[in-house]
Design brief:
With 77 residues, the chain is mainly α. Helix 1 packs across helix 2.
């Protein structure tokens, strides 16, 4: 269950929002991540790592679950 992922699409959105708010990219990124528990954004590698774990034998008894990969964004609501 990926949330926002640090991709070119997300970065372009942050850049557009920064321009609308007349601030630099880093300021807008920080503002947007204030509602995220870890104050960070997940990467494509984070999503891939979860997929690899779920496909591994270590996850053999995990069934029917939704696992958020969103740096805690869902927790904050």
């Amino acid at each position: 269950m990926p949330g926002s992922i640090d991709t070119e699409l997300w970065q372009n959105w942050v850049a557009r929002m920064a321009k609308e708010h007349d601030v630099d990219f880093d300021t807008e990124r920080t503002r947007l991540l204030q509602g995220v528990a870890l104050r960070d954004i997940s990467s494509t590698e984070d999503v891939a790592n979860l997929a690899l774990f779920l496909a591994s034998n270590e996850a053999r008894t995990i069934t029917g679950q939704s696992v958020p990969v969103d740096a805690g964004g869902y927790m904050q609501g």
